[in-house]
UniProtKB/TrEMBL annotation:
Organism: Amphritea balenae
Record's signal peptide: none
Pfam families: Flavodoxin_2 (PF02525)
Record-annotated Flavodoxin-like fold domain positions: 1-158
Protein's UniProt name: Flavodoxin family protein
């Protein structure tokens, strides 16, 4: 399986979690990793021809990012806007992603229990992530269960180390459940 991991972190070098995931995933056979902030630069400009060619080679696409104001960092939105174009991802002739898999690998600052209707964040993670699921639906991809590490900012080193093994396992597991 060819997997493409697109990491969207505003400053990957300062990250305690996403940087370690990125480095670890970069060393796994069959995984291609891309730091979207480094590629897009301050203007967040992407070459759709290059990005689309990489997408076409992938069987599974992983969007890796810190959960950032209840969504992804702006660089991922810029990438989506510039790469998932009509005629490629949707619309007439836009079937190039059909049958591929989409997965999210996310770190959050808050604890898991804070993502519920009766808690601090008022909504579940699946509700917050619905736009990504709909993006997968729109372009004909299968939306797989996300990998979410909660309380990442306060994590001790043992939890961080465990998360590296866990994210690699999740990303490379061939038969993951489809997210509901």
């Amino acid at each position: 399986m060819n997997t493409l991991v697109l990491t969207a972190h505003p400053d990957l070098s300062s990250s305690s979690i996403n940087q370690r995931w990125f480095k670890a995933l970069s060393n796994v056979t069959g995984i291609t990793t891309r730091d979207l902030t480094a590629i897009g630069g301050p203007a967040m400009q992407f070459d759709p021809t290059i990005e689309q060619a990489l997408l076409q080679k992938a069987d599974r696409v992983v969007l890796q990012f810190p959960f950032y104001w209840y969504s992804s960092p702006p660089v991922l939105k810029a990438w989506l806007d510039q790469v998932l174009l009509p005629g490629f991802a949707y619309g007439p002739g836009g079937n190039k992603l059909r049958g591929k898999e989409l997965m999210l690998a996310i770190s959050t600052g808050g604890p898991a229990e804070s993502y519920a209707a009766d808690s601090y964040n008022s909504f579940s993670m699946s509700e917050f992530l619905a736009p990504f699921q709909q993006t997968a639906n729109m372009v004909g991809m299968t939306y797989l269960s996300p990998f979410v590490l909660h309380s990442a900012m306060g994590s001790d080193q043992a939890l961080i180390e465990d998360s590296i093994t866990s994210v690699i396992s999740h990303v490379t597991t061939p038969e993951l459940p489809v997210a509901l």
